[in-house]
Design goal:
about 400 residues; mainly alpha; Growth Hormone, Chain: A; 2 domains; about 80% helix; MFS; Multidrug effflux MFS transporter
C-alpha cells in the first residue's frame, strides 16, 4: 500500500513539473496557423512565447515566499486556477495581443506547479529518497520537450491550434483534482514569514554578491538564451523557410531534444574524470566555434534543412555539458540561501531567454540568420563572462555534496 501511495505522489509531482514544458512547446507547430487566423505574423506570434518566459521568470521569484507563508497547497491551487482560466480565455482570442497577455497570465499560473513540485519533494521524501524522486522529475521535464511538439503537431493538424489550449486546460484540471484529493499538505504555513520586499530583496542581493554565483549563473543563463532563440524561431525556420509539415516539425524538435538530453546524461559520466569548471570551459569554446560556423553558413546561404538541424544539435550538445555544471557551480557556495539562489538563477535564465526570443522575433521572417546570430552572441558573451568572472573568485567551491560554504 505504501508503494502505491509513493507511486501516486511521484506521478502527481511529475505532472506538476510537466505542465510548464508542455505549455511552452505544445503550441509551437501552430505558429503559422495562429498568425493566419489572427491576421498577424509568425514573429509577432513568437512574442506570446516571450511573454510566457517573462511570466515564468517573475513567477519563480513570487511563489517561493508564498509557499513558505501559506503552505504548499493554497498557492498551488491559486496558480492552477489562474492557469485554467487563462487557457479557457485563449480559446476566445480575436487578436495576437490578447494571446500575448494571456500567455503571460498562463505562465504566472504554471510557475506555481514548478516551484511547488520541487518544494514538496523536499517535504515529503527523506534525504535518501529525494535524489531518486528528483531524478524522476528531471526525466519528466527532459522528455516533455520531445513529446509536447510532436503531440501538438498531430493535434493541430487534426483539430486546429485552439485545441492545444483545450488539452492544456484539461491537463491542468486533472492535476488540480489530483492535488486536492491525493496530495497531502506537506508544509505548515508560517504566519511569521515576512512578505515585505526589503528582506526578500536583501536575500537576493546577498546571493548576487557571491562572485561564484554571479559568474556561473550568468554563464548558464546566457548560454540558455541561445536555446530560447532556437525554440522561438524554430517554427518559422522549419515550417515556413524549409516548408516542413506540422508533424514533421514536432519530430525534428523531438530529435534535437535528444541531443540536449543525451549530452547532459553523458556529462554525468565525464564528471568522473574532469572537473565541472574544465567541462564548462571546453564546452563553451566548442559552442563558440560551432555557432560561429553556423552563422557563417547562414550568412553565405550555404545551409540546408539537414545542416541546420546538425548545427543546432551541436549547439544543444554543448549546452547539455555547460548548463548542469554551471548551475552546480553557481549554487555550490550556498546552504542557507540555496532556495533564493535557485529561484534567482531560474529567473535569470527565463528573463534572458525572453530577451533572446524577443530579439529573434524582431528580425526578418525570411531568413535563418537571426537564430545563429543570437546563438553566437550568447556563446561568446558567456565565454567572456567566464574569463572575466573567474578572476573575482578568490576560492572556487567545488560543485559537489561535500562543498563547504564560503560567505562573502
Amino acid at each position: 500500500m505504501a508503494k502505491k501511495k509513493h507511486f501516486y505522489l511521484i506521478l502527481i509531482l511529475g505532472s506538476l513539473a510537466a505542465l510548464g514544458p508542455f505549455s511552452i512547446d505544445m503550441y509551437l507547430p501552430g505558429f503559422v496557423d495562429i498568425a493566419q487566423d489572427l491576421n498577424s505574423t509568425e514573429s509577432t506570434v513568437a512574442l506570446s512565447l516571450s511573454s510566457f518566459f517573462i511570466g515564468i521568470s517573475a513567477g519563480q521569484l513570487l511563489y517561493g515566499p508564498l509557499l513558505d507563508k501559506f503552505g504548499r497547497k493554497k498557492p498551488l491551487y491559486f496558480g492552477l486556477a489562474l492557469y485554467i482560466v487563462a487557457s479557457i480565455l485563449c480559446l476566445a482570442v480575436t487578436n495576437v495581443n490578447q494571446l500575448i497577455v494571456l500567455r503571460f497570465v498562463q505562465a504566472i499560473g504554471s510557475c506555481a506547479t514548478a516551484v511547488a513540485s520541487v518544494a514538496m519533494v523536499r517535504d515529503l521524501f527523506s534525504v535518501e529518497e529525494s535524489p531518486k524522486v528528483f531524478a524522476s522529475l528531471m526525466l519528466v521535464i527532459a522528455v516533455s520537450p520531445m513529446l509536447a511538439p510532436t503531440a501538438g503537431g498531430y493535434l493541430i493538424a487534426a483539430l486546429g491550434w485552439k485545441y492545444v489550449f483545450v488539452f492544456l486546460g484539461f491537463m491542468a484540471v486533472l492535476i488540480l483534482l489530483a492535488s486536492i484529493f491525493k496530495l497531502p499538505e506537506s508544509y505548515k504555513p508560517d504566519p511569521n514569514y515576512s512578505l515585505k520586499p526589503k528582506p526578500i530583496l536583501n536575500s537576493f542581493l546577498g546571493v548576487l554578491k557571491e562572485p561564484q554565483f554571479s559568474t556561473y549563473a550568468l554563464i548558464s543563463s546566457i548560454t540558455f538564451s541561445g536555446l530560447f532563440a532556437y525554440v522561438s524561431s524554430s517554427p518559422t525556420v522549419f515550417m515556413k523557410i524549409y516548408e516542413v509539415s506540422k508533424t514533421g516539425y514536432g519530430w525534428i524538435f523531438a530529435l534535437l531534444s535528444v541531443a540536449f538530453i543525451g549530452s547532459s546524461q553523458l556529462n554525468s559520466v565525464i564528471l568522473r574524470w574532469f572537473t565541472s569548471k574544465k567541462i564548462v570551459t571546453w564546452a563553451l569554446l566548442a559552442q563558440c566555434a560551432f555557432s560561429l560556423i553556423f552563422l557563417v553558413f547562414a550568412l553565405n546561404d550555404w545551409l540546408s534543412l539537414y545542416s541546420t538541424i546538425g548545427f543546432i544539435a551541436l549547439f544543444l550538445c554543448c549546452l547539455g555539458f555547460i548548463n548542469p555544471n554551471a548551475a552546480a557551480l553557481s549554487l555550490a557556495p550556498f546552504s542557507k540561501n540555496a532556495g533564493s539562489a535557485s529561484a534567482l538563477m531560474g529567473a535569470l535564465q527565463m528573463g534572458l531567454g525572453a530577451l533572446a526570443s524577443v530579439v529573434v522575433s524582431l528580425f526578418s521572417e525570411h531568413s535563418v540568420v537571426p537564430m545563429p546570430l543570437v546563438m553566437t552572441l550568447a556563446a561568446f558573451i558567456a565565454l567572456f563572462c567566464l574569463f572575466v568572472g573567474t578572476r573575482f573568485i578568490k576560492t572556487e567551491i567545488a560543485a559537489s555534496a561535500d562543498a563547504t560554504v564560503v560567505g562573502h
